[in-house]
Amino acid sequence: MITVISLGGSMIAPDAVDTAYLLQFKQMLESHLAAFPQARFVLVAGGGAPARLYQNAYREIMNGAPASGDEADWIGIMATRLNAQLVRAVFAAYDPPPVVTDPTAPFEWNGRVLVAAGWKPGFSSDNDAVILARRFGARTLINLSNVERVYTADPRTDPAAQPLDALSWKDFRALVGTGWTPGKNTPFDPVASKHAEEAGLTVICAAGANLDNVAAILTGRPFTGTTIG
To answer: Residue 79's domain spans which residues?
Structure first.
């Protein structure tokens, strides 16, 4: 059984690299792999603080370069690749292949852990996770970030925002819109959402920091989060 996890950059490197979290995440995943011999994982890394730091530096130097420019996107993509290389090294005992940077290209994978990163401008690494889920026949994708649930509005700016346990792709896409700009902060990338809906995928958005909760998702037990699909 293959499980695809979009591991948000906010979990890997929220400000600096969160080594304590990565160690705990590794231990949680290793426990699952030991308990379920058929389990395999595709881990797709986001950009986190390195992406924002370098994209903001680029925009400052360029005196407000358009947020939709490919240069800003490529900077974010390179941050995902740095994070992915670290995640791959953390799981080196499982002999993962080189970090996947093009989810549509041929590659061999016979092990239990695969690590992927950003591909090209126009979307975030969430979309690469959707492509890989389709490629490997996964029906559910787990999206781990610093957001526990999807809300009716941004809870940071709207005190009336309410958490949602489940919603349709139509309703979710109405919340996040359809356009992509580099560094856009949404629970799940709008482009990835469109493709996930077309593929009939279910996406579970949950807080990556709550690893007991993540373990519950992996084993089909009740969990805290939002199911989209």
So the answer is: 2-228
Identify the residue whose tokens are 């699952």: 32
* Environment class of 92 (CB within 10 Å of its CB; exposed 0-12, middle 13-18, buried 19+): exposed
Structural element, H or E, at residue 113: strand 113-116
HSE-up (13 A, CA, CB side) for residue 150:
25
Neighbours of 57 (CB within 10 A): 11
Against a cut of 0.85, is the pTM above it?
Answer: yes
| Residue 212 reports pLDDT greater than 90 | yes
Say if CB 87 and CB 158 are below 8 A apart.
Answer: no
> What order of strands is seen across the sheet that includes strand 140-145?
113-116, 40-45, 2-7, 140-145, 202-207, 226-228, 166-167
Rg of the chain on CA atoms, in Å: 17
**pLDDT confidence bin for 24, thresholds 50/70/90:** very high
* CATH code of the domain containing 221: 3.40.1160.10
The mean pLDDT value for 12-39 works out to 96
